[in-house]
Amino acid sequence: MPVADSVTSVPYWLYKCQVQKLVVVISSIDNSEILERWQFDIESFVRDKSPKVIQEEIRSVIRQITATVTFLPLLETACKYV
């Protein structure tokens, strides 16, 4: 799987079930040092879900992400993500 040229490619790949793993890297602009790295394993399977169930699952993921904010470090340098 190629590296995304644009963030807009990722939703398309997810929709087409072409992604098994998604890695987000935050690195320093100055020296390309990796400051943070997250790996997400994607489980693609098709089943019928109601919009209510899908929204509940999205809320759950958002809660997990916001819960991590309390222990993520504050990055003091200019950064980029890839």
From TrEMBL:
Keywords: Cell cycle, Cell division, Mitosis, Nucleus. It is found in: Nucleus. The keyword Acetylation does not apply. Its main location: nucleus. Signal peptide: none annotated. It comes from the Eukaryota. Residues 1-82 form the HORMA domain. Belongs to the MAD2 family. This is HORMA domain-containing protein. It comes from Ranitomeya imitator.
